[in-house]
Every structure is written in structure tokens, then in C-alpha cells.
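Final report, closing paragraph on structural work. Over the funding period we assembled a curated collection of sequence-structure pairs, and we close with a single example.
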Amino acid sequence: MRILILQHNRIEHAGIFRQFLSEDGHDWLPVLLDEGENLPPLDGFDALWVMGGTMDAWEEVRYPWLRGEIELISEAVEKRGMPFLGFCLGHQLLATALGGQCAKSKQPEIGVFSVQLTEDGATGIIFDDIPDVFQCLQWHSSEVTKMPAGAACLATSPTCSVQAMSWGPRAYSMQFHLEVDPEFVANWTAIPDHKLLLETAHGENGTSVLQSSCDDQMASFNNMAERVYINWLQATAQV
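Its predicted structure, as stored:
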């Protein structure tokens, strides 16, 4: 496959998924939207991934390129039926592109938290062989507040009702981060907005607290990411 990966920061990349893609011989093109790189035509790509970012899905005035990104997501998913995978901001942008709504979270989630699969999530493809309740890394202060028509909620938590979502047979998105690799926390705390959220949630020692939590869970995080990656590839084969 050839995958177009939209990034909103150079270090908010596909993380551990890059290893899986490389091992399987897939090709991917990262586009750094915050650095002014242009969106390429979708022709020639087999799938679209959208990663996280510090901006909110509705900040089109501050980040004018968001408008074009949302239009591209709509074209890819609604018009072309391309396989899609989104994380955090990518999850929110999918909802926005398809007519859903996002807003600031009543309670931001920064750290390792439990997420529970819904019945749709437990019986569907993307979370096959994933426990009904699992630990994952969260780093967000906004969320999907209204899913688009035709979407299914696949996972939820007490503080964020739409933790994962599907639309059609080949578009999937998650509020949490599966792409975690050993450099994830160090990379993200280098971004002032992310570091502020972390220290607000966990104090001045927030970085070491989160790094320790991730180190303890890293094997589990990576195993889960690989399982979801395999499941996503299976879902892309659906007609």
C-alpha cells in the first residue's frame, strides 16, 4: 500500500506504526501541514492516516490549512471510500469532515487511562483480539461531542464518550494514542502546549510520572498497536 500521512507537527508522527509499515513493505508519505507543505492529490494513494496535533479541529482562522485538510478527509472517506485511520486530532477531524461536532473537553485526559469497548467495538474488526477494557495513553483537551450520521461508537470512557469511532466499512479513528514508542513522551514534552497540559494535570513532575507510566505499559501498548494495525489492514480489504 501507499499511505498518505497528514501530520500537524514534525515529531507527532506515526510512531511505532512506522516499524510495522516498513516491515511489511508499505510506502508512506508524511505531509507536514504546520510547516506549509501542500496537500497532494489523493490519486496514487491507497489510504489516508491523520495524526494528532496541538490545534483544535475548529481553529480554521488560526490555521487556514485546516480547511483544506478537512475537505481532503471528506473527499477521501465520503467520495472515494478510501481506508482511513485517525488518532486524537485525526479522530476529531474525521468527525468534523463528516458532519459531526467537536468541543473542549469538560475534563481533559492527560496520562494513562482505561477505555472500554462498546458492543460495536467488541464485535467489529478493528478491535478484534483487544480486551474489552484496556489501558491507553491519552493527551487531549478536546473531544468529539456529536458523531456524524452513520458513525458507530466503538469505545468509550467515563470522561470521554466517543473514544473510538467507525464510519462505513473502512474508516476508523481513536481519541487515544496507539502510536506510542519509547521516544513519545520526550518528543511531546518538547512542544510547549503539550507540556503545559501535562504539567497542569500532573504537576512539575508530570514528565517523569508519564514516562514511568508509559515505560511500564510500553510492551502492552505496542502489542495492542500491532494488533489494531493488522486488523485495520484486514478492514481495508472490505468492499
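The mean pLDDT is 94. Helices lie at 17-23, 65-79, 89-97, 119-123, 184-188, 192-202, 206-236. We thank the funder for supporting this effort.
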